[in-house]
Amino acid sequence: MTVFGILPRYIALRVLLTIASVFALVLVLIFMIDLVELLRIAGKTGKVSMLSIMGIVLLRLPSFAELTMPFAILTGTIGAFLMLNRSAEIVVTRAAGMSVWQFLMPGLLTAALLGLLSNMLYNPLAASARAASEQAYAVAFGEQASLLSASSAGQWLRQDGIDGSSVMSAAAASNQGRSLSGAQIIQFDRRGSFVESIQATHAELREGYWELTNTTVERPRGVPEHYANYEISTYLTPAQVRETLGSEFSVSIWQLPALIDLAEKAGLPATTFRVQYASLLSRPLQFAVMVLLAGTVALRTFRFGKIQSKVIVGLLFGFGFFIVAEVARQMGVAGLTTAVAAAFAPVVVAGMMAVTVLLHQEDG
Question: Whole-model pTM above 0.85?
Answer without folding.
Answer: no
